[in-house]
Amino acid sequence: MFMIKNNSFKKYHGLELSEKEMEDKALGFYELMDQRRSLREFSDKEVPKEVIENIIMTASSAPSGAHKQPWSFCVVSSPELKSKIRVAAEKEEFENYHGRMSEEWIDDLKPFKTNEHKPFLEKAPWLIIVFKKAYDLDDGQKKKNYYVNESVGIAAGFLLAAIHNAGLVSLTHTPSPMNFLQKVLNRPENERAFLLIPVGYPASDAEVPVLERKVKEDVLFYYD
After folding, report:
1. Is the dihedral of CA 159, 164, 167, 171 positive or negative?
2. Quick one: three-class SS letters along 5-70?
């Protein structure tokens, strides 16, 4: 269990930035993250394992309900496992594109030119599979976790930011249903696949759709 250590507290020491430093850092981080894009075209160039580990530990620094940290990050580089994951994912995606998804959903995806074929699952050097823990197991006993989806969602956001900060690209892939990932990776009964994220460098000829993000007036509302 990972509760407060010895029920103790310690004094918090913040970054202690000046107002100018805060403004500069906030703007710099926004400008960095505004360049982030989801990619489906990856290079097979190797990425150091240490980089992936630090990215994941950044994700694991996220806040969580009652500090339960209800997540596991499975990192796959094995060509054999990546091939198994691709085969299983494409099987589910074929069903999605040929009956499960509504016409409206398919129409919304047309600008992205996606289909059931997912070669990036084998091409990217790393696959990070984020699992959520519906409950914890402590010596075989079930222990309740709180705000699991919210906690794991926040950790996934940290993960994507850390990937981009490291100069890499990613894709939040959600082949639904994702039960096959628990089976392929032999994960325990309390874990459920949350996201499948290929990570690596962009292919030299990679392209992304020309998109516009919502402007400030559409997302930011002050109540003074």
Report:
1. positive
2. HHHCCCCCCCCCCCHHHHHHHHHHHHHHHCCCCECCCECCCCCCHHHHHHHHHHHCCCCCECCCCC
Q: What is the pLDDT of residue 4?
A: 66
Would the pTM count as exceeding 0.85? yes
Q: Closest Cα partner for 176 from 94, 111, 80?
A: 94
Amino acid identity for residue 75 in this structure: V
Residues in the chain: 224
**58-61 long-range contacts, CB within 8 A, separation 24+:** 58/158, 58/159, 58/161, 58/162, 59/130, 59/155, 59/156, 59/158, 59/159, 59/162, 60/155, 61/158
CA distance linking residue 163 with residue 169, whole number of Å: 7
Please return the burial class of 47, using the count of CB atoms within 10 Å of its CB with bins 0-12, 13-18 and 19+: buried
Token pair belonging to 217:
């007036």
